[in-house]
Amino acid sequence: MDEYVLQNRWVIEGRALYYYGLRNCDNLFKNKVRLTKKQLDIIRSLPRKLARNDIITLGKLVGSQVVIKEEFRPTPKSLSDARFCTECAANDYMIPGLEFDHDGRCPMCQTAKETENLKSLVPILDEIPRSKKSRFDVALFYTGGKDSTFLLYHLAKIKKLRVLAMTWEIPFMSDSARASIENAQKHFSNVEFISRSLAKDDLRRIYKKLYELSDNTCACPSLAYLLFYPDLVAEKVPFFIAGNEPVQALGLYYNRMAPKLAYSFSDNRLLGILINIGRILTLRPPLKKGQFQALLTMKQLAYGDNPLKKLSGYSNPLVSNVVTAIHETPSLLPPLKKSIRVSSRSGNIPAFVALDFDKICGGKYDWNKTKAILTEECGWISPDECSKALHTSCKIEKCKDHSQFVRFYNCRSKMIPFSAIEMALASRNQYRSREEILKEAELHLGFSLDEPRECAVMLKFLEDEE
After folding, report:
1. CA 407 vs CA 164, 214, 250, 379, 410: distances in Å
2. Where is 138: in which H helix or E strand?
3. How do residues 221-252 score in pLDDT, each as one tens digit?
């Protein structure tokens, strides 16, 4: 090929080029290239032969997988056409624009060593102490899915803690999740189960706005935080945990939603001292581990993104869109805002913490072993799709996968489909075999250019007016 072309997945946006994909480790997050006017004019004129002066003007853009005359990489149209990582289940169909090194490894495998300690954005505790101020030792956002049930089992049965299990009842909860919650209530005598739901009119208003922004209605777990934070404050619960497995937290890094610093923030003593000096000067009690993260999470829901976060270049459209949708129903916010004020002034802030899934499993969080234990010990019900292991509590999970996939595939969103990253990381970290991951991706996830039938369930709720 004598003509030069712009490599697939590079898109002109204003005076810059943006790459819709995940690049090799040397350029991992270098997706944006600013252009001079002359460079922009040349790139707009492609494909064509380039004169020597044109090549000089483009400089490093030529031959660096930006402007090329060979190795053009088309986007696969199915999983069967995809190129796969030689070490994990990552592929350039589920993650369009995925790059590979000379050994055929994806960026996630290339950076496995340097990201092995990026486990959580909230403090990880080895042990949760018994509380002297509350009738609960810990609260758990409980969905009836595999991961939250595993945490419930560990906290209540292994550690014998007094647990408050909080369930937000969504209209799309899977039948297996409902049955699992009912069975858990029979198995755990030291757990108090509470549930909350929104008025359908309020929920429909939120969902409609969220669908307008994201093409799906996924608001978990943000709406659960909004509903239950006042309960946590009123009960003086010292700690609360979200039922997220390790690959979900790490996925935020590869989606450029959290820098490495965020994973070690809770261990940074200097930052902790500076924050607490500010609190003491304003006559508020100093914060303990996890309390800053709790306040930050709840304030974002109540008041929106902090301007400093926007300036940092790191954003989470999943959460930002949910926050925008929540504010369509402002009557929901006063109880949350009041609880934030009360807890911040008193210092009785429930700390947002996590447990190390690998550590409490004594090695690796093996999904198959976990499901077997939960079935026997908790009466957990697996979804009908027996090979399904990721996100087992929702009927419309495919809708979220599909919308994220299609938007990224068509370069309409800069967010890489979360399930695609999570599945790749799960196989990389040996939570499941590559074969199991690919079987689940093909059968049970929404990575299809055709709309899955589950979307009809989601749209029916949006359209029904009672």
Report:
1. 38, 9, 22, 38, 5
2. strand 138-141
3. 899 999 999 999 999 999 999 877 788 999 99
Report the alpha-carbon distance of residue 66 to residue 73 in Å, rounded. 11
Looking at domain 138-357, does it have CATH number 3.40.50?
Answer: yes
> What tens digit of pLDDT does each residue of 370-426 get?
888 999 999 999 886 555 455 567 888 889 999 999 999 999 999 999 999 999 999
Vertex 220 angle, CA 384 and 307, to 5°: 155
Q: How far is CA 112 from CA 106, 108, 242, 296, in A?
A: 10, 6, 25, 29
Which residue's entry shows tokens 């945490």? 151
What residue segments make up the domains of the chain, in order of their start? 1-73, 138-357
DSSP string, 360-386: HTTS---HHHHHHHHHHHH-----SST
pLDDT band at 210 (very low <50, low <70, confident <90, very high): very high
Burial class (CB in 10 A: 0-12, 13-18, 19+), 283: exposed
| Identity of residue 324 | T
Question: Quick count: other Cβ atoms within 10 Å of Cβ 278?
Answer: 12
Q: Which residues of 408-438 are buried (b: 16+ CB within 10 A; e: fewer)?
A: bbebebbbbbbbbbbbbbbbbbebbebebbb
Amino acid, single-letter form, for residue 199: A
What rounded mean pLDDT belongs to the chain? 91
Q: Which tokens go with 147?
A: 């991961």
Residue 326, burial from CB neighbour count under 10 angstroms (0-12, 13-18, 19+): buried
